Amino acid sequence: MPATDYQGSSVPFASLGRSILSIRRDQAHTMDGGHHDPTQELDAFQRHVAELFHDLNAAAGGTGGDEVILSLPWIRKLLDTFIVCQEEFRVILFNHRAAVARPPLDRMISDFFERGVKALDVCNAIRDGIDQIRSWQKLLEIVLVALGGGGGGEEGKARGEGQFRRAKKALTDLTILMLDEKDAASVLSHRNRSFGRTSRDSHHSSRSGSGPGGHFRSLSWSVSRTWSAARQLQAIGNNLTAPRGHEVVATAGLAVPVYTMSSVLLFVMWALVAAIPCQDRGLQMHFSVPRSFQWAAPILSLHEKIVEESKRKDRRNANGLLREIRQVEKSVHQLSELTDTIQFPVSEDKEVEVKQEVEELAKLCEAMKEGLEPLERQVREVFHRIVRSRTEGLDSLSHSLE
Known about the structure:
Blueprint: H1 20-32, H2 38-60, H3 72-95, H4 105-146, H5 161-179, H6 181-188, H7 199-207, H8 229-237, H9 245-250, H10 255-275, H11 296-311, H12 323-340, H13 348-401
Helix pairs in contact: 2-3, 2-11, 3-10, 3-13, 4-5, 4-8, 4-10, 4-13, 5-12, 8-10, 10-11, 12-13
C-alpha cells in the first residue's frame, strides 16, 4: 500500500496538535522573512513531542472509555503520534540537510537509520501477530455460529448436543492457540512476509538492477524462526544515550531531535511488542531517559504502566497485553466453563446463560474485527514512513558528500 494512501488514523491529525501543514507554513514564513531561527524550530519539536505523549499518558490513565492503555484505539493513537513525530523530524532533517554530513551528526543520523531498519522487522512481526489474532477469530466464529450468536442459529430454537460439542472443540482449540505462544509462533514463522513496496520503491529497485522481485536493502525480510522480539528491541536500544553537551554544541542542537526520535521509535516498537502476539515477547527492556527532556516524564510514565500491566498475575503468561485480547480470553473462559456444565436436554436457565455469554462474545469479536484492519494499515504506514525517511536521509548524506 503506498504511504500516501494512508487513511487509517483513529483520530484526525489536527486533534493531535499542530498539523504538519501548519508546521511547514510556519517554517516557510520565518524563512521568507529572513529570520529563520533553528533553535525555535528544534524547541518546538521537543514541545510538540511532549504534548503528544502527555495526551497519550492522560488517555492511558483512565479506567473507562475507548482509549484505555493498550486498547486498540490507544495503540492506534500511539501510531498516529509516531507518524506525526516522524514527519516533523523529516522536516527538520530537510531544513538542515547541509549539516547532516558533518561529524558527529552524520554518525548519529546513520545510527538512527540503522535502528529504523531493525524496527522494520518488528513491524513485520506485528503484522504476523495481527494475522494470529485473525486465526483466533475464525475459531470464535465457529463458536458463535454453533451456539447461535453468529447468524447460524434460529431464534428460539434449542441448541442440540452436536452444536455444543462443536463449540466446545473450537473453544478448546482457541484456548491452546491463545496460551501456547511458542507453538503458535513456530507455525506463523512459515507465514511471515515483508510488507509490499510502494511504486516509488519498485522504481528504485528496477533502477538499481535488483529486478521486480527484489527488495530494498532497507526493507526487512521476513523474520526467521529463531527471530526474537526481545533481542530485536535490545538491538534498537543499544548505545542509545542522551547527547552530551559538547555533542549538542557541535551539532548546533540537532543531536537532541535525533535522540528524541530514536527514543520515540524504541518506545513505540516496545509498546507494539507488548500489546500484540509475536515471537519471544520478553519486555525486560531497559528504558532510561533523562528527565530533563520535556517528553521524558510522559513516556517513562507510560513505560511504567505497561510494565505493571505485564506483571499482573493474570497477564504474566499472556500472548499479548492488548486489552481486547484479555476481554476475549475472559469471555472464552466463562463460556468454556458454562458449556462444561451443560447437561442434555438443556434447561431453560442454561439456555439463557449461554445466550448472554454468546452475545457478549459476539460484541467483542465485532469490536476487534473493526479495529484490526485500520491497525494493520497503520503498522504498514509506519513501515513505509521508516523506509522513506531512511531513503531520503541517505540520499541527503550522499549528495552532501559529492
